[in-house]
Amino acid sequence: MPTAPKTLWIAALLVLPVACDQEPEGRPALQGLQPSSQDDGLVLADRTFLVDAEPDTEMYVADEELVFYGGVVKLDDDWQPGDLLVNGAGVGFLRRVVDVEEAGTEVVVQTEMAELHDIVAQGGFHGQFKPFSEGLRLSDDSGAFGDFVARVDAQGNAVPLDQFTAGVDAQGASGSAGHIEFDPTTLVSAGGLRLDLTGGHFSFDPDLDLDVDLGWWSIDRFEVLAKGTMDAEIELRLGTDGNYEILDRSVKLWESPRYAWYGFIGPVPVVVVTTMELGATVSVATHGPSSVTMGAGANSWVQVGAIYDGDDGWDMVGDHGFNFRYSGPEFVLDTELDARVALDGVLKVELYDVVGPQLTMSPWAAVNANAMGHWSADIGVKGKIGGAVSLPWHDDIGIDAELFDWSHRLAEGELY
Length: 416
Prior knowledge:
Elements: E1 30-32, E2 43-44, E3 48-51, E4 59-61, E5 65-68, E6 84-87, E7 93-103, E8 106-113, H1 116-119, E9 120-129, E10 136-137, E11 147-148, H2 161-171, E12 175-176, E13 179-182, E14 185-190, E15 193-204, E16 207-215, E17 219-255, E18 259-265, E19 268-309, E20 313-333, E21 337-351, E22 357-369, E23 374-387, E24 401-414
Parallel strand pairs: 3-6
Antiparallel strand pairs: 1-3, 2-9, 4-5, 5-8, 6-7, 7-8, 9-16, 10-18, 11-17, 12-13, 13-15, 14-15, 15-17, 16-17, 17-19, 18-19, 19-20, 19-21, 21-22, 22-23, 23-24
């Protein structure tokens, strides 16, 4: 069970009730939002409404429309194109009204996506929380510990998800949103080349700081920082019967359920949605029959993220401190070999389930043996920040940067 959420501080430093002019009796589905006298300095757009209806039971939420059931709202409820709608249930939403029509007993509101700065002309939001161990797991995601979403069989073909999940469950794999244990998993199987992840784990449930200051329809400051302990371990077995080369093949291994945190800017609900995805990136080059087994791990304190200032632009944060451990490598070969496997843990941070910034931690292990019989084993961790699109609350802010790239030589020697 997730623990109860901590209080999220807001610009006015209080969570305040919704203010509505001439509110009718009962629970109105549309509630006009205005700052109270205690929301010092908070300015909201005119005709901003809280949609007080439950997704799936009282309304259906689609990408470009909201469908209200059974008289929850009416066609003559003073709708106007340009009205701003916000909802804080589940993943929540921010929408702008385009048109309204009636379809039998349903009211269909055509909408387009809105952004936080459309509603909040001046104000701010600050949250500090552990997104997984203290977050609220959303009930619309199946699987208690997330889903293993990719694997290949001995012939290199993708295994259907239901078969893969059943196989992993039978092997006793365990995990949670911020931690996953690996049972034996085939990463690459092509002809006479086979690379297995024979064990290991990945753990990262950081403290997340999210800070947004809005000043007159623009962003004065935006901050996303994740800080905490990452622990990862990779155990590998590689076997080949000839010459093969694979470069940067990506395998998606696992994804967590979605977790939500809820706060307010005055009366405006703010929903922060986080997920974790874990994949592997594989590169292998062999020049004859060979096999190698090895294990490597890293425990690290990290602080990664970025701070945006409206005057000075982006300032990247990539502090870290690493400890390492390893076993092997053990070789059976008389030829050249080069292999590298990275685990890519991606923490996604979204407002209202809209694509936002992503923080990536990529621990990796590599082994090399050359034609002269010299071998070496290395470990490293790379930290990055990025996003699939510009940040959802501003059209002009995009980010894609490497925060750090640390590596260490574990061991080296001669085969003969």
